[in-house]
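Order emerges. For instance:

***
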Amino acid sequence: LTEHVLFCGWQRDLPYIYADLDCVALTSLNEGTPVSIIEAMASSVPVVATDVGGVSDLLGLPIQTFARDGSMVCDRGVLCTAGNTTGFAEGLQYYMDIDPVVKQEGLKRSRDFVTNNFSVTRLVRDMESIYHELAEGPR
């Protein structure tokens, strides 16, 4: 594995790291809403991840199932059954074999999703809305 995968440990220059990645592989057995996936999507990096916690909310609706265990290509990434190494490997293979145009379309959907749902602009707009609601008081 070490001939094909680089385990870097803790890193600080994330924009440079994401720019060099071919794929983000999240093999967690337990997650909330993983920031690493949000960062990857914002950086137009493909994501293959296990179906735990809020991962499926980030990757979106299924488009096609590609393994007997229910692993699937979703609107914004590949979602695999937790603990199934074969399905996960097939998910990684999907990004190696995919048509470049189809891949770019999916990466654009991912980036747009993150921009619309996790940007500073969206956060400020939501906070502003809360302040206006509180200032108006109960109706």
Summary: The mean pLDDT is 91.
